[in-house]
Amino acid sequence: MQRTLLTQTKSLRTPLSNLQVTKKVEKIISETKEFMLDFNAAAEANVVKANEAISKLSTSHKSEREKMEKLRSGISDDNTTFNSSISMMLTKFKMIWPFKAKSWMSLLFAPHKSVLKQSSSSTQS
Prior knowledge:
- The protein is mainly α.
- It has one domain.
- About 90% of the residues lie in helices and about 0% in strands.
- It is built from 4 helices and no strands.
- It has helices at about 1-15, 20-95, 100-110, 110-125.
- About 0% of the residues are buried.
């Protein structure tokens, strides 16, 4: 065992020939190339995965935006319908309300007692 250690240490001390150096350098270069190819392949796979995720996200974002636009237009349509129906009801209410416009507005927005006072004063005049 000591002899093998001695020969190993001798081999380490002896200078390498140009051919041996060239082979070692070539081996290191080929291992580095393999590593870089593997690394690049993994990086490209990650880029593809990231692009797919971004595509899915933008597609879902687009569909969510479309849903929100539909909802917004529906709310707007409902609001328009509601406003026109309220306006129509108020117009009809004005036609059947025998008192001044101020009185029917008070009926809608004032406290109960003041409405009673106003409506009684309106009936007297």
